[in-house]
Specification:
Blueprint lengths: L1 E5 L2 E5 L3 H17 L16 E4 L2 E5 L12 H14 L7 H5 L2 H14 L3 E5 L2 H12 L11 E6 L4 H13 L3 E6 L4 H10 L8 E6 L1 E2 L4 E2 L2 H10 L3 E5 L14 H4 L8 E5 L10 E5 L1 H10 L1 H4 L6 H16 L2 H19 L11 E7 L1 H13 L2 E2 L2 E2 L9 E6 L6 H17 L5
Parallel strand pairs: 4-15, 6-7, 6-8, 8-11, 11-12
Antiparallel strand pairs: 1-2, 3-4, 5-13, 9-10, 12-13, 14-17, 16-17
Helix pairs in contact: 2-12, 4-12, 5-6, 13-15
Length: about 425
């Protein structure tokens, strides 16, 4: 519905269904013409270091399958046993009849892995992030006259942004300050300024690893600052769990603050098996409160048993040894060095997300398509996913890759990069 105003009169123009569909089609056409339309390229089979697309074997560089566990024999076997022993699904939410012992076991495993007291499962980390902010800031706690404050990194994931938005819509007493990306000094200044405002709850929210940049937050600085100002430190570890740190315990391990983060959220759908599922882990009282107040938890079906059992096995594998983590780190170091040697511009870092900066969305789309014909599956990212003028190919390295796979991909990058004038 479109409303315009002429003097004191208001005219309302309601789109009929045919007009609506026409408007939608026009927007889709514009996206295709500007080369910002997102195409899906189906795989013929399973996920891995290489995949089959239209019968051709190509190197997969667009997956969150960091440890190569998506189709690891032990993960597949655990999922199979989960199906055989506990069934396909529970047809229920947790508090009715949807909790099995394996769900509680996985929650204990997650808490032990992160050095926290308790955990709660959700169907995704997106749901977990929305649940955390909307439940915590619901206004049900003791004070009747209050305001809360959230400090959020400007480049935080969409799920954190949406969770905060929902909380602020539902409860009009939540203030927000979005500090410049990883700018600890701006955050320090703002928190000092806000001391006298006496907020009921203060939360510092950050990604552990920023998914578009492959950059991590210096959590050792955040831990000290949050403690000084009596604020909760919330960290989304979706792209760090199983990836960063010597044993794969993520950004806190890398930064030397393992077990010192108030609230960690994460996913089971990336390094830890690659299926689905998310979690919140922290103090027991906080987790128990989430069990009572999290709407995505209360009103969504239980995580299926095959995923639960496979996730338990993934954490067990990480606890046994760090060989896959070390292979991932070695592969990442190799690819980062070699792609720069070819002349490409990347965002520096240590994470297996390696953004190759191209500038324009059309260049990213053209290069992605050309690379697929040369045997490399990779996707371009552009506005609004990243800022205008910062379109890129987001390369993601995996422990499933052999050096021969990476060399094959590098050869394709060199050929296509020269063809499109990205490198000389």
């Amino acid at each position: 519905m479109v409303t315009s105003s002429t003097g004191s009169k208001k005219t309302t123009h309601k789109l009929g269904t045919s007009q609506l569909y026409c408007a939608l089609q026009n927007e889709l056409t514009k996206a295709k013409e500007s080369k910002t339309y997102k195409y899906e390229v189906p795989l013929d089979g399973e996920q891995g270091g290489t995949v089959s697309v239209n019968g051709a074997n190509v190197v997969m560089l667009a997956s969150n399958n960091y440890l190569g566990l998506s189709n690891h024999p032990r993960i597949r076997e655990a999922a199979k046993l989960g199906m055989e022993r506990y069934g396909f699904g529970l047809s229920s939410v947790r508090f009715l009849c949807g909790t099995q012992k394996i769900h509680a076991e996985l929650e204990e495993v997650i808490a032990d892995f992160f050095g926290t007291e308790d955990s709660i499962l959700h169907l995704s980390c997106f749901a977990a992030n929305e649940a955390f902010f909307t439940a915590l800031l619901s206004g049900d706690l003791e004070q009747s006259d209050y305001r809360d404050m959230i400090y959020s990194d400007a480049l935080n994931h969409a799920s954190i942004i949406d969770g905060i938005r929902l909380a602020r819509i539902a409860v009009k007493t939540t203030d927000l300050r979005a500090y410049k990306h990883n700018d600890i000094e701006q955050l320090r200044q703002w928190m000092q300024e806000d001391e006298e405002k006496d907020h009921r709850i203060s939360v510092v929210a950050t990604d552990g690893v920023f998914s578009m940049e492959g950059e991590y937050a210096p959590l050792e600085k955040f831990v000290d600052l949050a403690a000084k100002h009596n604020a909760l430190l919330f960290v989304d570890e979706s792209h760090a769990t199983g990836v960063l740190g010597k044993t794969g315990r993520g950004t806190p391990e890398l930064c030397g603050v393992h077990g010192k983060i108030d609230v960690i959220t994460g996913t089971l759908g990336k390094a830890m098996g690659g299926a689905a599922g998310g979690f919140i882990t922290g103090k027991k009282e906080l987790v128990e409160y989430m069990r009572q107040k999290s709407r995505p938890y209360t009103f969504s079906n239980t995580l299926p048993p095959p995923i639960v059992c496979a996730s338990i096995e993934a954490f067990k594998m990480l606890k046994e040894d760090n060989s896959l983590v070390q292979k991932l780190h070695d592969n990442t170091d190799y690819f980062r060095k070699e792609i720069k040697r070819l002349g490409f511009t990347i965002l520096e870092g240590v994470h297996p997300i390696v953004p190759i900066m191209l500038g324009e969305a059309s260049t990213a789309m053209d290069m992605s398509r050309e690379l697929l014909t040369e045997g490399v599956y990779i996707r371009g990212l552009w506005y609004p996913v990243v800022p205008r003028g910062e379109a890129r190919l987001r390369t993601q390295i995996s422990a499933a890759h052999e050096l021969s796979d990476l060399d094959r991909a590098l050869t394709a990058f060199q050929k296509v990069g020269k063809k499109l004038g990205v490198i000389s």
